[in-house]
Amino acid sequence: MAEWITSTMESLDYWGIALLMFLENLFPPIPSELIMPLAGFTIAKGDMGFVPAVLAGVIGTVLGAFPWYYLGKAVSEERLEHLADRYGKWITVSSKDIKKANNWFSRHGVRAVFFGRLVPGVRTLISLPAGINHMSFIPFVLYSTIGTSLWVIFLTTLGYLLGDNYELVDEYLGPVSKIVLLSLVIWFIIWIVRKRNRRYE
Length: 201
Hints:
Layout: H1 2-12, H2 14-26, H3 32-44, H4 50-74, H5 77-87, H6 95-108, H7 111-116, H8 127-132, H9 137-162, H10 168-200
Membrane topology: Multi-pass membrane protein
Family: Belongs to the DedA family.
Protein name: Alkaline phosphatase
């Protein structure tokens, strides 16, 4: 995977970044945690500019969010979950992933699109519940762009600072993302318990 990402970026330059980030949103197994840090490393060598690389990453990501968004609009949640359980293994997406993304959207509303772009494991699929719940297109693009920009800048900066060790971003961010997700689940459970306790007071 790392070799393919490297060769694509070397041969296509900024177009390669946009293409890879577009595909990363369609196929979750492709990690943005490798793509943008590699771009940051390339910037550190003087072979790319920071702003164009970030713009390419943001544009590719936002464009890659549209297919999931329109799929959510066109197909019911139940049908999507059935399809995910039947064919999702090819892109590592299950009905549980769809439920998790939809629950995230239900809890946070349109803000979920912004925050979801910053959480690995949620960021790719958050477009689905936005479509399922018929979120307006302009707010969807706006929140997606802002959240994506922060994520892309963060990863690119890490790659720039780490230099030759840019691959450490993917190595260490994986466990960190799991901690973030666990923390969010714990916070949500506490929130539910407190809300129920208030009802009985």
